[in-house]
Amino acid sequence: MNLAGRLFCTTIGRKLLMAATGTVLIIFVIGHLIGNLQVFEHPDKLNGYAHFLQTLGPALWIARAVLLGCVAIHIWAATVLAIADRRARGDHPYRVNTWLQATLASRYMRWTGYVVLAFILYHIAHFTIGAAQPATFKGNLPAYTMQADYKVMGFVTVRSGTEVADVRSMVILGFENRLVALFYIVAVGLLSLHLLHGAESLFQTFGWRNGRWSGGLRAAVTIACAAYFLGNLAIPGAVLAGVLNPGGAAAAVSQH
Question: Three-class SS of residue 47?
Answer without folding.
Answer: helix
